[in-house]
Amino acid sequence: PNGRTYESFCVFCPSGELDNLRQLEQEDVLVDWSSPIFLNFTHCAIMDRLEEFYQPIGTLEKVCGDVLPTEEAEMKQLKTEHAKTIHDLYPANTMECVEVFEKLISALPAYGVFSDGELAAWMVQSYYGAMFSMQTRPEFRRKGYGIHLAKFLTELVISRGYIPFVMIRPENDASQSLYTKLGFEKHYQTVRAILRPHGQEDDTPGGGARGGTVRAETSDG
After folding, report:
1. Mean pLDDT, the chain, as a whole number?
2. In this protein, which residues make up the domain named N-acetyltransferase (predicted)?
3. Is 63 exposed, middle or buried (0-12, 13-18, 19+ CB in 10 A)?
4. What is the mean pLDDT of residues 88-106?
5. Strand partners, 112
């Protein structure tokens, strides 16, 4: 921590037997309480007891983390009936129709994490190794489902003989961080666009004057 080297120690104690932590107060052989020491993530109940007797000795600088198990979740292949749910949360659903998702799910690997039978998160392969539409429903976020899906589908795409890749919008910090952890690196920037003649509305099927506008969005690949 903070670029310094510390002696470190761990504490293991059943949560129902925390009174045994009193042994640490007399510990002077294995733990040197007179020097700065580092304790990695430890159950908060144990830390509370340590803090009680450590107060006369010094101060604690703490960082807390939530433990979010995923044992109740199940990874399963998606079905076309899930396409609408996926499309509704897809950020670019104005540029892709729900039928595209139905075709991808029926033809290529597409998996979801189900919690108590409910679709919580999903990811789809698209074309030559591309992986996209990784989404987690808001009520299921911060449970680690995204990284489990990304790891699973990455390995599956590789097993099918493709090089897995993703396209991420520059402002999507969460996805940038996730795929960096998995070893992905930026290769180039890609753009997709709608080219529309002047005078054409979004849903106008044809015709129009010469000259036009381009609406584009970029992704880091």
Report:
1. 81
2. 73-201
3. exposed
4. 87
5. 76, 122
Q: CA–CA separation, 92 vs 154, rounded Å? A: 22
**Is residue 91 scored above 70 in pLDDT?**
yes
* Furthest C-alpha separation in the chain: 87
Helix, coil or strand: residue 67: coil
Angle, CA 13 vertex, CA 9 and CA 18 arms, to 5°: 115
User: pLDDT tens digits, residue range 123-161?
Assistant: 888 878 888 888 888 888 888 888 888 888 999 889 989
pTM of the prediction?
0.55
Quick: pLDDT tens for 48-59.
888 888 888 888
Q: What amino acid occupies position 102?
A: E
The pLDDT of residue 71 is above 60: no
Contact between 216 and 189 (Cβ < 8 Å): no
Q: What are 6-14's contacts with CB under 8 Å, separation 24+?
A: 6/36, 6/37, 6/38, 7/32, 7/35, 7/36, 7/37, 7/38, 8/37, 8/38, 8/39, 8/40, 9/37, 9/38, 9/39, 10/39, 10/40, 10/42, 11/39, 11/42, 11/46, 11/50, 13/46
